[in-house]
Amino acid sequence: xxxxxxxxxxxxxxxxxxxxxxxxxxxxxxxxxxxxxxxxxxxxxxxxxxxxxxxxxxxxxxxxxxxxxxxxxxxxxxxxxxxxxxxxxxxxxxxxxxxxxxxxxxxxxxxxxxxxxxxxxxxxxxxxxxxxxxxxxxxxxxxxxxxxxxxxxxxxxxxxxxxxxxxxxxxxxxxxxxxxxxxxxxxxxxxxxxxxxxxxxxxxxxxxxxxxxxxxxxxxxxxxxxxxxxxxxxxxxxxxxxxxxxxxxxxxxxx
Length: 255
Prior knowledge:
Elements: H1 5-20, E1 29-31, E2 38-40, H2 41-57, E3 62-65, E4 77-84, H3 86-90, E5 97-104, E6 107-115, E7 120-125, E8 130-132, E9 135-137, E10 148-151, H4 161-171, E11 176-178, H5 183-191, E12 197-203, H6 205-217, E13 221-223, E14 236-241, H7 243-253
Parallel strand pairs: 3-4, 10-11, 10-12
Antiparallel strand pairs: 1-2, 4-5, 5-6, 6-7, 7-8, 8-9, 12-14, 13-14
């Protein structure tokens, strides 16, 4: 593996401490692509910290972070979201995380997602399973009626609103729904069975890269909403579910 996973977890924990000690003011918050797309002083501060520390781990590894002005995917390196769930952070909702994925040869091979408020460290290495803190996790493969369905609202892409609402209406006939506000944690929650599935029509690679590996290593099927391999070089849709629910979603989505 490219880096020591224990060091990766330690760096995520240190980044979490920066967020926990934050004192957020209105002057430190601005909007990016839309009025609902927030960035704060601490998104930038945590990203700068992560870039510095991760480059120490792997100097040759490329660094891609959400708050960079230009997006370039390189097959070997880090894909980072310094605060996934920034809107929750801004409004004091304790549901956000640091997300770090490590890629090698274009594949995600290591991942850490850390919720500093809950002190929950999800992590995985390719072929070695997924963990929450020190416990191995596995999706329980429940049926629709036995679990929750996580959704992403995709407020930054108007074209995604109608298909999201239509699919919500279909799912609500079978299962309850949760909209929690962090794609990375949604994927982790499917990994350990807090949710049976999750979908979103518009996300960025840094939103889902780490969670994708954690979910797959826990037995979750993860694809785009068209049933294809999620790309890491552009915006995408995402569908993650245990095998039973995924099979039914294929019929609903007709792919």
